[in-house]
Specification:
The complex is a heterodimer of chains A (611) and B (144).
Chain A: H1 2-5, H2 10-33, E1 37-43, H3 50-67, E2 71-77, H4 86-100, E3 107-111, H5 113-127, E4 132-136, E5 147-151, H6 158-166, E6 172-177, H7 181-194, E7 202-207, H8 211-219, E8 225-231, H9 243-253, E9 258-259, E10 272-275, H10 278-293, H11 298-301, E11 303-305, E12 310-314, H12 315-321, E13 333-335, H13 341-435, H14 440-467, H15 470-474, H16 477-490, E14 495-500, H17 508-529, E15 534-540, E16 544-551, H18 558-561, H19 566-577, E17 581-586, E18 592-599, H20 600-603
Parallel strand pairs in A: 1-2, 1-3, 3-4, 4-5, 5-11, 6-7, 6-8, 8-9, 12-13, 14-15
Antiparallel strand pairs in A: 10-12, 15-16, 16-18, 17-18
Chain B: H1 5-10, E1 19-24, H2 28-38, E2 42-48, H3 51-61, E3 65-68, H4 77-86, E4 92-97, H5 102-110, E5 115-118, H6 122-134, E6 139-140
Helix pairs in contact in B: 2-6, 3-4
Classes of the chains: A alpha/beta (611), B alpha/beta (144).
Chain lengths: 611, 144
């Protein structure tokens, strides 16, 4: 390239420069002069028609976004549906001419067949050389000059295929159309498109009926039927309607599902169908308009046919008519699906379930805990029972042991006393009798034998006394205690014994019990306390008998001593057996005091051990 | 057989009528020794081996003196003596016992006993105690 440029002449370079400048000049001039893009949109529908509303909503946004500069946007609505008189169109043309004279439009957009026809007729007079973009439904639409457009043919039959899939049992299609010329034009188109389906469905055209009659008719449709709404802007009685209002009335009255062909009816009780998506059409025309506004020549783009239909189904209507959602064709857009409880609240449900599970776990844990605790308590109770039972057995055993010991002692004492003592007494008597008769040399031996026998008598008496003092039975407690006092004093323990109002006679068992308690207490005092004096006091009262054994010895820790020797326990058990109470109070260096109380009832108990 | 000193001392007080004695002891040998000791100055009108027999015998035999053992199966001699007193018996009671003990002596006197003889002194003391009792006087063996 650099090599070739060397051969370029100056004149050649200048020529190129001039050509480039000539090319650029008008464009840059126009750009500078024309800051705003002036656009007029003509609708074939009244201002409040759904298509007008969608168009006015979508188109300015697309253009605004696509142009990136201020948009001078105008729109007009040719309401031939309500004003079918030809003079309206003439007047409308004049109105446009007067209104917009002097405004050089950069683009005129014709929305729909009526607008396209209007522009085709009056274009030169009204808009001079402004390019035209159009959206038409009639395939024969042609606009002379710099124009481009889409032919979007209305398709009514696509919905029939949807019906076949959704409700295979449907046989009757009741087609609802109105009385206005536009309504009739739609009806003609529909009839034409439905003709191939007449073998599959029986079509009934409810055309141009009075609204109330139509409603009545729709309320009583047979089974296997559906309603197909085409268009009603005017009923048979000449009443004009907003098409969507009329759809509401139809879908409210009909006892079968209503289908249609355009998306504006969705959300007005219509189940759905293969629908003409108005917004898509508007967007298509918007994009086409932008191409022209960006400088493409409209007639260079040309006119083409498009199909923007899509299957849309109102989920609520599926529910209303009990149609299985699984029959919805694949690729269809299901609208207004109510989120299930799960969809809407899954976080809460999961949370609640989680909390419930945790709570259940806790409750289960607590229940298990309670069961375990109860089992443990049961086992504890059982072992306590067993312990108590074995304690009872032990006590019973020790009671019986004491009793057996006493009985045995008593028996041996009596044997010693009643038999051996008697025998020795007899021996003494006989030796005494012999003494006078024997020879002097045996006299000494006899005397020795006699004194030995008398010694045996005393020994047996003492032994018998220690085992079971016969005085207890034969004389009573006081005499027996006095002996005890005497014995202990001989052992070096000074004992005082006082008594007052002791009832006589006492039951032998009680006598024995009190005697043994005193004996035990005195022995303890002798063995352990180093007491200087022990006092025994027996005192009869109106409530019962009180026995006190107190010493001034070293004392001891009662709790510690309890159970170490049989002494204290056996004292308690002996008293318990006769219905009395036993208490011992002692502290180190403060002496010991044994308190016994036997209630009056026990003093009269006739029962006695065999001694 | 040499009579003991006490026996001799008491001789002048004995009545010409032989004393009627009931012997009560659960030991037959002891009864035999007692009977031997009392004979011939006293007449043993009967013997009994326990308290119940003794009470019956006193009722039927009407002895002057009842020689009573203290330790017997069933009723003790002390109880028998008390019962006799309560029944209004005029028979004097002499206890013959192995109990060489002041408390028993006190108990015996409290029960209405007139004499108290320790068994090992039976040979020397019993006849005296019985005759003294017949005369309404008390005789007590020397206690050790």
């Amino acid at each position: 390239m650099t090599i070739r440029s060397r051969y370029w002449s100056f004149s050649q370079v200048m020529l190129v420069l001039v050509v480039v400048l000539c090319e650029l000049a008008p464009a840059s001039f126009a750009w500078a002069a024309d800051e705003h893009k002036r656009i007029l949109v003509l609708y074939s529908t009244r201002r409040d028609a759904e298509f007008s509303i969608v168009g006015e909503d979508v188109l300015p946004k697309i253009l605004d976004a696509g142009l990136g500069r201020d948009l001078d946007y105008y729109s007009e609505f040719i309401d031939v549906t309500r004003f079918p008189d030809p003079s309206y169109r003439v007047a409308f043309g004049d109105f446009i001419r007067l209104k917009y004279q002097g405004i050089p439009f950069d683009l005129v957009i014709a929305m729909g067949d009526v607008a396209a026809a209007f522009v085709a007729t009056d274009r030169v007079r009204l808009f001079q050389e402004a390019p035209v973009v159009f959206l038409a439904n009639n395939r024969d639409t042609r606009i002379a000059g710099n124009s481009s457009g889409f032919i979007l043919e209305r398709s009514f039959s696509g919905t029939l295929r949807v019906i076949e899939q959704l409700q295979p049992d449907v046989k009757n299609v009741f087609v609802v159309t109105g009385a206005a010329p536009a309504d009739r034009a739609f009806e003609r188109l529909a009839r034409e498109q439905f003709r191939p389906f007449e073998s599959r469905f029986a079509f009934t055209y409810l055309s141009a009926l009075r609204a109330s009659d139509l409603e009545q008719r729709l309320a009583g449709l047979p089974e296997h039927s559906i309603v197909y709404y085409v268009l009603v802007t005017e009923d048979g009685a000449g009443n004009k309607f907003h098409p969507l209002e009329f759809v509401d009335r139809i879908t409210a009255a009909a006892n079968r599902p209503t289908y249609s062909w355009v998306d504006s009816v969705v959300d007005h009780g219509v189940l759905g169908g293969d629908l003409y998506i108005q917004k898509a059409a508007v967007e298509s025309i918007g994009r086409l308009a932008l191409r022209v506004l960006h400088g493409e020549r409209a007639d260079g783009i040309g006119t083409s046919a498009i199909n923007l239909n899509a299957v849309q189904i109102d989920w609520r209507q599926l529910q209303r008519w009990g149609i299985n959602e699984a029959r919805v064709p694949s690729g269809a857009l299901v609208l207004f699906r109510e989120a299930s409880l799960w969809d809407r609240y899954n976080i809460y449900i999961l949370g609640a379930v989680g909390i419930l599970l945790i709570q259940s776990g806790l409750i289960a844990g607590l229940l298990v805990q309670r069961v375990r605790r109860r089992r443990a308590e049961r086992e504890l109770r059982a072992s306590q029972e067993a312990l108590r039972a074995s304690y009872e057995r032990l006590r019973d055993l020790s009671g019986r042991l004491l009793h057996a010991q006493e009985s045995e002692r008593a028996r041996i004492a009596r044997e010693l006393h009643d038999d051996i003592s008697q025998q020795i007494s007899l021996l003494v008597i006989d030796l005494g009798l012999m003494r006078g008769d024997v020879a002097p040399q045996t006299q000494r031996l006899t005397n020795e034998a006699l004194s030995r026998a008398e010694g045996i008598v005393r020994s047996v008496h003492d032994l018998s006394h220690r085992l079971h003092p016969p005085k207890l039975r034969l004389i009573g407690l006081v005499a027996a205690l006095r002996d005890l006092q005497h014995e202990m004093s001989q052992l070096g323990v000074p004992v005082t014994f006082t008594h007052e109002n002791v009832p006589m006679p006492l039951p032998l068992e009680l006598t024995l019990c009190l005697f043994r308690v005193v004996q035990e207490a005195l022995q303890n005092a002798h063995k352990y306390s180093h007491a200087r004096l022990v006092s025994v006091h027996l005192h009869g009262e109106s409530e019962g008998l009180t026995l006190t054994v107190s010493d001034d010895g070293v004392g001891f820790d009662v709790d510690e001593a309890w159970g170490k020797g049989l002494g204290l326990i056996s004292m308690g058990e002996r008293l318990e057996a006769v219905g009395g109470t036993f208490g011992i109070s002692s502290r180190p260096e403060q002496g010991t005091k044994v308190n016994v109380f036997v209630p009056l009832s026990a003093l009269r108990a006739p029962e006695s051990v065999s001694v | 057989m040499t009579a003991p000193a006490l026996l001799r001392v008491s001789l002048p007080t004995t009545s010409p009528e032989p004393v009627r004695v009931l012997l009560v002891d659960d030991n037959d040998s002891m009864i035999a020794r007692a009977a031997a000791a009392l004979t011939p100055r006293c007449v043993v009108v009967g013997t009994a081996h326990n308290g119940a027999e003794a009470l019956d015998a006193v009722g039927t035999l009407r002895p002057d003196v009842v020689v009573l053992d203290i330790s017997m199966p069933g009723m003790t001699g002390l109880e028998v003596a008390s019962t006799l007193r309560q029944q209004g018996s005029t028979a004097a009671v002499v206890f013959l016992t192995v109990h060489d003990d002041k408390d028993f002596l006190d108990a015996a006197q409290a029960a209405g006993g007139t004499g108290y003889v320790v068994k090992r002194r039976l040979v020397s003391d019993l006849i005296v105690a019985v005759q003294e009792a017949r005369a309404g006087r008390s005789f007590v063996s020397a206690l050790s």
